[in-house]
Amino acid sequence: MLKKIIPVLLAVALTAAFTLPNAQTKATKIGFVNAQKVLECHPDGKGIVAQRKKAEDELKPIQQQLTALQAKLQQNTASAAERQQYDVLAKSYQARAKQLQDKFDKLLTPVTKDVDVAVSKVAKAQGYVVVMDRLIASSSGLVIYADPEGTDLSDDVCAEVKK
Q1: Engineering a disulfide at 128: which of 29, 64, 69, 93 sits with its beta carbon 3.0 to 4.6 angstroms away?
Q2: Domain 27-162 has CATH 3.30.910.20
Q3: CA distance 149 to 37
Q4: Which 8-state DSSP code applies to residue 152?
Q5: Integer Rg of the chain from CA
Q6: How far is CA 102 from CA 51, 83, 110, in A?
Q7: Per-residue pLDDT tens for 70-106?
Q8: What is the per-residue pLDDT for 136?
């Protein structure tokens, strides 16, 4: 009987010896950044924010006209001329919005690359494994709670992106 128990005990001891060290992993550090704040810290950031505001201001009157015409269309009180005006205005709005978005994307791409590099440098230097945009993480429900003092890397990333 003892001869049958010894191999089982030896197998259990070997299994424990190889699995217990792997079970003791170090804690994963997760950090957050305020992407809007970091964007504004970039030397070109204020210009990009101004361009976005300018585009929104340009499109706003057209959007208001479309909203008014759409209300008439939904209530079936729009004339044929108003329906045609709505179609022309909608196409014009979409084309202009696309032009402005393309222009904005061209301005934003190099800044985004700079910010990504800065986030990577700060995260690696401080031992973070994952860094998320705080607004997206909280609004998506991805993160329910995070200590803002111990996990916010925004100021450090801003300092890096200004270099």
Answers
A1: 29
A2: yes
A3: 16
A4: B
A5: 28
A6: 12, 29, 14
A7: 998 899 898 989 999 999 999 999 999 999 999 999 9
A8: 87
